[in-house]
Design a protein that fits this description.
The complex is a heterodimer of chains A (464) and B (590). Chain A has 464 residues and is α/β, with parallel strands linked by helices. Chain A has helices at 138-143, 162-172, 193-205, 229-244, 255-268, 282-290, 319-325, 336-340, 357-360, 370-394, 401-418, 428-439, 452-458, 460-463; strands at residues 8-10, 13-17, 20-24, 34-38, 44-53, 56-61, 74-77, 83-86, 94-96, 112-115, 132-133, 146-147, 154-156, 182-191, 212-218, 247-253, 302-310, 330-333, 353-354. Chain A has 3 domains: 10-81, Thrombin, subunit H; 84-360, Rossmann fold (3-Layer(aba) Sandwich); 370-463, no CATH class. Chain A is built from 14 helices and 19 strands. In chain B, the strands form 5 sheets. In chain B, strands 8, 18, 19, 20, 21, 22, 23, 24, 25 and 26 form a 10-stranded mixed β-sheet that branches. Chain B has a 6-stranded antiparallel β-barrel with strand order 1-2-5-4-3-6. Chain B has 590 residues and is an alpha+beta fold. In chain B, helix 7 crosses helix 8 (402-408), helix 11 packs across helix 12 and helix 11 (454-478) packs across helix 13 (516-538). The chains are: A alpha/beta (464), B alpha+beta (590). The structure holds adenosine-5'-triphosphate and magnesium ion. Adenosine-5'-triphosphate (ATP) sits between chains B (234, 236-242, 393, 422, 427-428, 505-507) and A (325-326, 353, 355).
Chain lengths: 464, 590
């Protein structure tokens, strides 16, 4: 693209609504270019051209159009898309949702200016993610293994401890046999100041992390900036990963706020609403965020994403978790039930899934029996859950000995496998061994999903 | 050529003025970067253009240039094992040209024009003989397992003046000349075909053969015929992609085309890598030597989702025309439908159900209808087929939505995936109660070449599973104790069917592919067990002793027995079933 750098200015705003400005078109306006709206007071806000025809131009204003006086405001066209300055010197810095420093520090001395929309990775240039990340959390390492380059969201509910879990993961995550560290890019999207502060603080004090960049859009910041916030964070992440060979973990919280902003914008544009008022293109829009993860042929760095969202009404079929699940490579679902029982982390292992797990585990990566132990644990827990429901209806008198063992297994599984300390780090061997100890409470011929050779090798009965 | 001007830009939709003289579906180049677009509507002198590349930076007044051509695919040697985007740009080559990111405005030839292929001329064809469309004039061994047949393009017929001798040629060299009424056609190894138009055939043939997929729940319960069409709807994580990938890996077809349309980049990467590693069971060659990939991931321009499915269908028909059996899978058709909805909304068309355009159904039909087993045009006479599977991703896993419902109108087999089965790690999570196949009668003759009667085994399996569902309702109300032993036996056997037969891991080294012979024997074993158990139950043997028989555990591991050893295993286990039950009766009665 070769933009001519002639900056155009205009004084005739036709109307303003929500976060949109409608103006008369002037020649040369580019679709999706950035504009600066200068108010009478001298304050300036950024905006973006979202529709342009010969007669009219529609501008979406970050920061909203309140106080925009149609008569006196000026619109200045920049001739290019939204770009942010990036540098390898950004660690420790805090920026707002549009990438402007808000920590009182100096301006970023740019090594480059990058378009916040990024460029899609050629699918033929991607490397399938396969390096196991040990988080030290049994439910995750054992049953939902994460690999470098994966995008794995946490589906939470209001009041559930996703903040603590996410910071525990960041604190403990490591790749075996590799000294390389994660850099963390943290994006707060429309969360309260306390939440944002909690994250920044725990990320900074976690002893292993000197490498945090924070992009903060709090609940009180303009809604419309939320559209840019995750993109700014990912642009920083891409710069670090692809230009500086860094393994980057991007933590984004809360995607639900992002989607609300998208819905608001769509309503302002008077688009035909899709399910529950969210725009029909929300899948594609979210994909342009989530797909910015992965590994690339010939590049040393990687981008792993952990977006966090709160499911409205704990409903997993709500468009926000639903469309997210359709794009990400699995999901970690938190359960209110387990939370009430006092289990931490309250991971619903039946609804949760890591799709890239199989490539990251097994011989040479974790342990040869990992996949089969995982399948057996989940299937036994599912059976235990089913029996729980059954006994809730028909009582436990009619239960066979086998059934009782499964019920007992389900309890043990929640208390000893899923449940662990917030500062407890279990190695993958410890995790698998706990798993075996629990499986040993079941009759041996129930372990149909595990090969006989592994039973001989790892079953406590044969191990001593 | 028509040259107009950009009048409006709204996302992937550009409206251009001064465009009179252009035609619907004509390819146009937009703006200074010559972005590729296609005219999808004309009003007065304005053309509505869906643009296949990101339109950021385009401004009003930039030029829009018509091409006079429809959006077409290049068909010839150089397709197999490749990855294309929705516009048939070779993604693997682009990597070399422009690095790992897909930039816009890049033009690249679909087929390699610098590679020489060894052309072997069809010896039966004499100079001076009359040739017409699709007549085979020679062969290129494109991969060790794929012979590319070079055909006379459509629109050409006349007398063969000249064919080059065997030797190495590039695809754009003239390899034959055909003369008709003083006009000479130069024939090259490649031809072009507009992707939205289906390639002609002589007539449709009945779909009578089973598409052997090696996935038991399909082959045994919900078969798809060669040349048939099937839909795979399911909520997120239910296993659509894994199932479709498994089909393209193991189906006994000549060519498999995998269209990733609006889905994940990592999945595409995984498919590409595993197709290089895994080998085709019948030839022992890497799977990519008979596969083509089309990748337009969710973050790539939405309009190109549509071209990727039609491009897939065109490549499929082209190989069908050579006399091959081709399998095309599209993951996911919902993403294509959503792209249609987005463009339609921007065109301010009257929205239909849930905002989808009124032509959603007919557009889906124009895709699925390109499947079929046909007698091909051209000499020598031959038949070929294109089988289509489309994934559907219903919002909230609610199948009442428009894309699922419209798709159901056109397909022959419904493979309905159930999220609750997937959550219990029952894979493939095909619902045995909601799925159906309209090809059952057609393919039962095919199955009858094995001694055992497939239709009967199938019917009995479905009956037991249906019965199980009813019994489970009762169990949920009053507990299992209330059931008589016969019913408890049905629960037991249904569990065997579910766990020891239907569940099939896509990642198991042996079980991921189950040949029809093995599948049939497995069904027979389970039913033999059921019959014997039922008999001895009537003779007074308590159910607990039946359940304790060691034979039960053996059956539960039969999936892991390799196909080569299965016949032997079958004979043994059938004897063992017989013996252990007889002993049981003796123990009780005697
Ligand atoms: N046949 C199978 N064998 C073993 N595991 C399977 C099988 N099918 C599915 N799975 C498991 O289920 C996960 C999800 O499957 P898949 O990615 O195919 O879902 P999907 O329906 O395509 O979801 P989406 O709509 O989000 O793309 C896989 O990553 C794998 O772990
Ligand atoms: Mg999928």
């Amino acid at each position: 693209m070769n933009y001519t750098l002639s900056i155009k200015e205009l004084r005739s705003v036709l109307s303003a609504k929500g976060s949109l400005l409608f103006i008369k078109s002037i020649p040369g306006v580019r679709y999706s270019e950035i504009v600066e709206v200068v108010l009478e007071s001298g304050e300036s806000r950024l905006g973006q051209v979202i529709d342009v025809s010969r007669d009219a131009t529609v501008i979406q204003v970050f920061g909203g159009v309140s106080e925009v006086n149609v008569k006196t405001s000026k619109v200045r066209f920049k001739g290019e898309s939204l770009r942010i300055p990036v540098s390898s010197d950004m660690f420790g810095r805090v920026m707002d949702g549009l990438g402007r420093p808000i920590d009182g520090g100096p301006n970023i001395i740019p090594e480059d200016f990058l378009d916040i929309n990024g460029v899609p990775i050629n699918p033929a240039s991607r490397l399938p993610p396969s390096e196991f990340i040990e988080t030290g959390v049994s439910s995750i390492d054992g049953l939902l293994s994460i690999v470098r380059g994966q995008k794995l969201p946490i589906f939470s509910g209001s009041g559930l401890p996703h903040n603590r879990i996410a910071t525990q993961i960041v604190r403990q995550a490591r790749v075996r046999g590799s000294e390389e560290r994660f850099a963390v890019v943290f994006a707060a999207i429309g969360v309260t100041y306390e939440d944002a502060y909690y994250f920044m603080n725990s990320l900074r004090t976690a002893s292993t992390i000197e490498n945090v960049v924070s992009i903060i859009n709090t609940a009180s910041a303009p809604t419309i900036e939320r559209i840019a916030t995750p993109r700014v964070a990912l642009t920083v992440a891409e710069f670090l990963a692809w230009r500086y060979d860094t393994h980057v973990l991007v933590l984004m919280v809360d995607i639900t706020n992002y989607c609300e902003a998208l819905r608001e914008l769509s309503a302002a544009r008077e688009e035909v609403p899709g399910r529950r008022g969210y725009p029909g293109y929300m899948y594609t829009d979210l994909a342009t965020i989530y797909e910015r993860a992965g590994r690339i042929n010939g590049k040393k760095g990687s981008i792993t994403q952990m977006p966090i969202l709160t499911m409205p009404d704990d409903d997993i079929t709500h468009p926000i978790p639903d469309l997210t699940g359709y794009i990400t490579e699995g999901q970690i679902v938190l359960s209110r039930d387990l939370f009430r029982k006092g289990v931490y982390p309250p991971v619903d292992v039946l609804l949760s899934l890591s799709r890239l797990m199989k490539d990251g585990i097994g011989t040479g990566k974790t342990r040869e029996d990992h996949y089969q132990v995982f399948m057996q644990l989940v299937s036994a827990y599912a059976e235990g859950q089913y029996l729980r429901e059954l006994t809730a209806i028909v009582g436990s008198e009619s239960l066979s000995d086998r059934d009782r063992k499964y019920l007992n297994f389900a309890d043990l599984f929640e208390r000893r496998f899923i449940n662990q300390g917030e500062f407890e780090r279990r190695s993958i061997e410890e995790t698998l061994n706990v798993g075996w100890d629990l499986l040993a409470t079941l009759p041996e011929d129930e372990l149909k999903l595990i090969g006989v050779d592994y039973i001989r090798k790892y079953h406590p009965k044969y191990r001593s | 050529m028509v040259i107009g001007k950009v009048w409006r830009v709204s996302g992937p939709l550009v409206i251009a003025e001064n465009m009179s003289g252009s035609m619907i579906y004509e390819v146009v180049y937009i703006g200074n970067d010559a972005l590729i677009g296609e005219i999808i509507g004309i009003q007065g002198d304005k053309a509505f253009i869906q643009v296949y590349e990101d339109t950021s930076g385009v401004s009003v007044g930039e030029p829009v240039e018509g091409s006079g051509k429809l959006l077409s695919a290049e068909l010839g040697p150089g397709l197999i094992g490749k990855v294309f985007d929705g516009l048939q740009r070779p993604l693997s080559e682009l990597e070399v040209l422009i690095g790992p990111f897909v930039k816009r405005g890049v033009k690249a030839s679909s087929l390699p024009k610098d590679v020489k292929w060894f052309f072997r001329r069809e010896k039966g064809l004499e100079i001076g003989s009359k040739v017409g469309p699709n007549d085979i004039i020679g062969y290129v061994e494109e991969t060790p397992i794929m012979t590319h047949k070079i055909m006379v393009p459509h629109g050409v017929s006349g007398y063969l003046k000249e064919v080059v001798g065997d030797g190495d040629y590039r695809v754009d060299e003239v390899i034959a000349r055909v003369e008709s009424g003083g006009k000479v056609f130069n024939i090259k190894m490649y031809q072009e075909w507009p992707i939205r138009k289906s390639r002609p055939y002589v007539r449709r043939l009945e779909p009578t053969e089973l598409l052997i997929t090696g996935t038991r729940v399909l082959d045994a319960l919900f078969p798809v015929a060669v040349g048939g069409k099937a839909a795979v709807p399911g909520g997120f994580g239910s296993g659509k992609t894994v199932l479709l990938q498994t089909l393209t890996k193991w189906s006994r077809t000549h060519i498999n085309i995998y269209v990733g349309c609006g889905e994940r980049g990592n999945e595409m990467a995984d498919a590409l890598h595993s197709f290089k590693k895994l080998v085709d069971p019948s030839s022992g060659r890497p799977l990519y030597e008979k596969a083509i990939f089309i990748a337009n991931t969710s973050n790539m321009p939405v309009a190109a989702r549509e071209t990727s499915v039609f491009l897939g269908a065109t490549l499929g028909e082209y190989f069908r025309d050579m006399g091959y059996d081709v399998l095309l899978v599209a993951d996911s058709t919902s993403r294509w439908a959503e792209a249609m909805r987005e463009i339609s909304a921007r065109m301010e068309e009257m929205p239909g159900e849930e905002g989808f355009p009124a032509y959603l159904g007919s557009r889906l039909a124009s895709f699925y209808e390109r499947s079929g087993r046909v007698e091909c045009v051209g000499n020598p006479s031959r038949s070929g087929s294109l089988t289509i599977f489309g994934a559907v991703s219903p919002p909230g896993a609610d199948f009442s939505e428009p894309v699922t419902q419209n798709t159901l109108r056109y397909i022959g087999t419904l493979i309905s995936l159930d999220v609750s089965l997937a959550n219990r790690r029952h894979f493939p999570s095909v619902s045995w109660l909601l799925s159906y196949s309209l090809y059952v009668d057609n393919v039962s003759a095919w199955w009858s070449k094995f001694n055992t009667s497939w239709s009967e085994l199938r019917r009995e399996f479905l009956r037991l599973l249906q019965k199980e569902a009813e019994l489970m309702e009762i169990v949920r109300l009053v507990g299992p104790d209330a059931l008589p032993d016969q019913d408890k036996l049905i629960l037991e056997v249904s569990k065997m069917i579910r766990e020891d037969f239907l569940q099939q891991s896509a990642y198991h080294p042996i079980d991921s592919y189950s040949p029809p012979e093995k599948t049939l024997m497995m069904m027979d074993i389970i039913l033999k067990y059921y019959k014997k158990a039922y008999d001895v139950l009537l003779q007074g043997v308590p159910l607990v002793s039946i359940k304790e028989l060691p034979i039960r555990a053996k059956i539960s591991r039969m999936k892991e027995v390799s196909p080569n050893e299965f016949s032997k295993f079958y004979v043994n286990i059938v004897n063992e079933i017989e013996e252990s039950f007889n002993n049981l009766v003796k123990g009780v009665v005697g």
